[in-house]
Amino acid sequence: MQELRRVVPHSCPPGEAVITHGHRLKQPWIIHTPGPVWNGGDQNEDALLASSYRRCLEVAEEHGLRSVAFCSISTGAYRFPLDRAAGIAVNTVQQYLRTHPETGLSQIVFAMYRAEEYQVFQHALDAGS
User: Fold this and answer.
1) 1-22 as b/e, with b when 16 or more CB fall inside 10 Å?
2) Residue 75 is part of which domain span?
3) Count of domains in the chain?
4) Host H or E run for residue 57
5) Which of 27, 65, 70, 96 has the smallest set of CB atoms within 10 Å of its CB?
């Protein structure tokens, strides 16, 4: 958190992303992105969530990373509907890979904490393939 506050002293706006060292974590880098707070769907939430995923991929690529793992952005305290968020996440990542065929990213993981998240993201992946 200290490094994040140094990199972004005030706040990172929804839809943007910044990278910091992983320090004592197993991962050498952490990409931070604030997703949008759900306000009923008429406050540009879908586009901001897509931007959060896309910016993470761009930052990863800018730093020469080969893999990235995502949690379910904005679906916890920010109340973004899980099924809607999963579709946006999967579609955004798939579109990014289609439009960046030369990307150095070779592995993208959706890492879910709860069985419900896993099932919803698995369904979105199945529907998107």
Assistant:
1) eeeeeeeeeeebebbbbbbbee
2) 2-128
3) 1
4) helix 45-62
5) 27
